[in-house]
Amino acid sequence: MQHLDLQVVRRALEWSAAGRRIWLCTVLTTYGSAPRAPGSLLAVNDGGQWIGSLSGGCVEEDFLERVAEGAFFDPVSIVRYGAGEDPRSRVSLPCGGILDVLVEKLDADCAVLMHLRELQSALLGQRRLIREIDLVSGARSLFADGEQGARIARENDRVRIRVGAAQRLLLAGYSSVAQACAEFALGLGFEVILCDPRDEVLEGVLLDGVEIRRQLPSMFIADGGCHRDTAVVALTHDPRIDDLAMMEAVRTDAFYIGVMGSLQTSQKRFERLRRIGGLSEAELARIHAPIGLNLGSKTPAEIALAVLADILRIRRGIARDQL
């Protein structure tokens, strides 16, 4: 599964290297009904070729027409579609939706090439970046991103955009809860990978859109299967799978690590991880156990909902006491 934003940046890089001018568009904010989340990308070159998406199609068509007519020759501009839209736009969004789009004109030069290469490396999971754009001059800067939080932040004349790999959910072992988690996560736009070496457990399992690897999750993690945009969850109640996955996951940059079990089960697991796995208190503190928000969940779907809600809470940088 390839991240759409990565495809956009790769194609933009090819166009820029070939000497073509590019307009890079980023969804900044959405209100009401909007099919694409903030941070979504679209790129178009001066020959009319384009890749990516801003909405369901009507916005793209209007934008491409305006580029062909010679619009957007300032270094940077913001266009609003929907209620109170830019008077130059010719479309309205359904259900009262509003969409703000950042448009950057990128001439083919060495600075743009370097900038796009840095974005590509971030989208490949090599590191996470914050991209800052000056809305007056169009100047662009990149900073290392060491925290979780909103993908887009706007303050006065500056916009800060978090750039990283596609959100990945790594399911350490199959169970009915893992199946429900996979289904929820796919709907939320996660890349989902399931690792389980047990052929008898996976027999007859169908998970459309999920990459299934018949290997120990701990081996997949040790081989570099996690990056900073990965959530690792173990939901089998089998310590041979769950404990080993935790021991490897805490040595990665995964932004969320969780394992299913009651409070008593979790306490026993932590003791095993200290004694057998040699995990430090700082490493144990990274593990969410019991996993998920306390929603009184009982069924697999309810537990999965609590797990994904907690992952999103961490992803957005929201403390539990702020809920």
From TrEMBL:
Gene3D superfamilies: NAD(P)-binding Rossmann-like Domain (3.40.50.720). InterPro entries: MoCofactor_Util/Proc, XdhC_CoxI, XdhC_Rossmann_dom. Residues 15-69 form the XdhC- CoxI domain. Pfam families: XdhC_C, XdhC_CoxI. Residues 169-311 form the XdhC Rossmann domain. PANTHER family: ALDEHYDE OXIDOREDUCTASE MOLYBDENUM COFACTOR ASSEMBLY PROTEIN, MOLYBDENUM COFACTOR INSERTION CHAPERONE PAOD. This is XdhC family protein.
